[in-house]
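Interim report, section 4.2 (structural modelling).
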Amino acid sequence: MTISPSALPAFHVMTKPRGAICNLDCKYCYFLSKERLYPNSDFRMSETLLEEYIRQMIEAHTAPEVTFAWQGGEPTLMGLDFYRQAVAYQQKHKRPGLRIYNALQTNAVTLDDDWCRFFAANDFLIGVSLDGPQALHDAYRVDKGGAPTFERVMRGIRLLQKHSVEFNILTTVHAANADHPLEIYRFLRDDVGTSFMQFIPIVERDNDTGFQEGDQVTERSVGAEQYGRFLIRIFDEWVRRDVGRVFVQIFDVALAVWSGHKAGLCVFEETCGAALAMEHNGDVYSCDHFVEPKHWVGNIVDVPLREIVNSDKQRAFGLAKRTRLPQYCRSCEVRFICNGGCPKDRFIKTPDGEDGLNYLCAGFKAFFTHIGPAMRFMANELAHHRPPANIMYHMRQQDELLQAAFARAGRNDPCPCGSGLKFKKCHGRADPNRQAAR
Ligand code: SF4
Ligand code: SF4
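Predicted structure of the assembly:
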């Protein structure tokens, strides 16, 4: 079957040129176990396959830009020459007018001046995995010998900064760091000096296959409510002082949706299936989180990438995100932004016993409900061509009004914060932490 590229949905591919091979041994990593899928492999993408992949990616994109996303395992373990060659092949196959971008996700441990000079010269966008200040980062992000990695990661980040390489920080939220939201946020903002952050929940299934099976999670996984609280605490600081200067992915996604646009992030779209993963040998899977035999959709050596993306199997994978949404989600007030979250995390039952509710539901519901008023305010500012950062003045006014109401409230009055509790049981409690938490 020949498919016109113009009929293709927009898509991107996370490419793993070194497969699951990594220099670290992060305890929660979902990808290290994928090494077992390829016994006896050398886990190195060949130059022939690299060129073929680049040619097919460019051919399959009719949009004026295409992004190559390099991931792992640890993609820098391919060595710098591999990426020099990739850029050369991109230039060789590039159509006039096509913009080509490269994004690479790394643990930053291997970076040196040569890598950073190359990234800067070729406009690579680098994602660095960092889980917070030293003790929180080192809880799970260790090397093959079990040694901590924080100092080596920070060294890599400083090199990126020295060479003015564009980078963002990907922080996973897990049992060891989830109760420290502000410590992490302020560390990333003030000590690392980054303006772009992602907070990705660790929901790690407890099984021996490494696949998305079973309904138990490891003790490293974040709790649902805990994840919601984590996001809320950071949002409450961000919305008062950092709008327009710090960009947190889930906040940006939410503002896009509240403004009437698409989420732009598969987890919160109605359907998915446009974010595929490709292994070092050209095997393509439906998603980076479903690199397992039953979600194999083809190999680009045998079937053109554009046909794989457009295959019935891949389309069915993406549509299932919507068709399998439980009734509980369909009638949920924040479904318009949540859409049931990622299918990989949908393994608990709804209160009425239906399968397929997202493990993180309680956190999503709390978070999206909490940010609604501020999001509506910012969306309205955007709609009137005013900066959403105006929310910070609005929040300040609201806070001052609330403080004044606290000062006037009697002990048995309803708390002005709207909790429904008596003032003496809420913000009027003689507990300074309770007050500060507001
Ligand atoms: S399964 Fe989850 S991560 Fe994968 S494409 Fe769908 S929403 Fe995105
Ligand atoms: S918050 Fe919960 S019920 Fe609502 S859409 Fe998300 S997962 Fe479903």
